[in-house]
Amino acid sequence: MEKELLKSLSNHQASDAWTPRENLVGITGGIGAGKSVVARVLRILGFPVYDCDMEAKHLMDSDVSLKEEIALRLGRGCVFADGSLCREAIADVIFSDNEARLWLNSRVHKAVYEEVERFSEANSEKTAFVESAILRTSGLWRLCSSVWVVTAPEDVRVKRVEERSKLSPEKIRERIESQKSEFHFSGLLPEEAIVMISNAPSDPVLDKLLNKTKSLL
C-alpha cells in the first residue's frame, strides 16, 4: 500500500530526474527549525516566496469533495459539523500513520506542485523561493536549483513549538522524529546544491541570509 501511495504522489511528474528551474530555490526544515522565519526575511528583502503549507491549506479548505474523503480516510473527527477541518486531529493522524500521511500528500500536493511550476515561470526573471516542510516527499526538490535546509538543536525546536502550541514535549519529539527522512537530499542533489542554514539562538540567521542573498538581488 505504501509503495502504491508513493507512486500516486509522483505520477504527475514526467520523470524522477532532477530538472531544476535555475531561478527557483527550495526552503525546508522540520517543525520548530525556523523555515518560516527564513521565508519572512526573504520576503522583506524583496524575493517572491511560495508558501506550500498555506496554499495546501487553502486547497483543503475550499475543496468539499476532498473534505469528504478526509473524513472517510482519516476519521470523522477530522472534519467539524460545520464542514471546517480540525487540523489538530488531522495532524495527530498523519504524524502517527505513515500511510495516512502519504495518502493526504498524494491528494493535495499534486495541485501544489503544478502551482509551483507556474509560480517559477511567472518569476523567471528573478530568484524565487518555494517553502515546504515536505520538499522531498512532494517531489518539489526536482524543480529547485538548490535547497536550503533550516536547522536548529532539538531542545530549541521543542521549546519553540511548546510556546506556540498546546503540544506536549513528547508529541513534539515524535513529530521531529517522523520528519527526519524529509531533509536528506544527498544522492538526490549535488552536494553544492544543498545548503544547511543554522537558526539556533546562538547563531542568528539574519546575517547569514543577507550574505547569501547579496548575489541574488
Please name the CATH topology: Rossmann fold
Q: What's the count of strands? A: 5
Which structural category do the helix and sheet elements fall into? alpha/beta
- In spatial order, strands of the major sheet run 2-3-1-4-5
Gyration radius, to the nearest Å?
17 Å
Largest sheet: 5 strands, parallel
Bin the strand percentage.
5-15%
pLDDT average, as an integer?
A: 89
How would you characterize the overall build of this protein?
This protein is an alpha/beta fold. The chain has a single domain, classed as Rossmann fold (3-Layer(aba) Sandwich). The chain has nine helices and five strands. A five-stranded parallel sheet has the order 2-3-1-4-5, sandwiched between helices. The radius of gyration is 17 Å and the shape is globular. The termini are far apart. The relative contact order is 0.21. Residues 1-14 have low confidence and may be disordered.
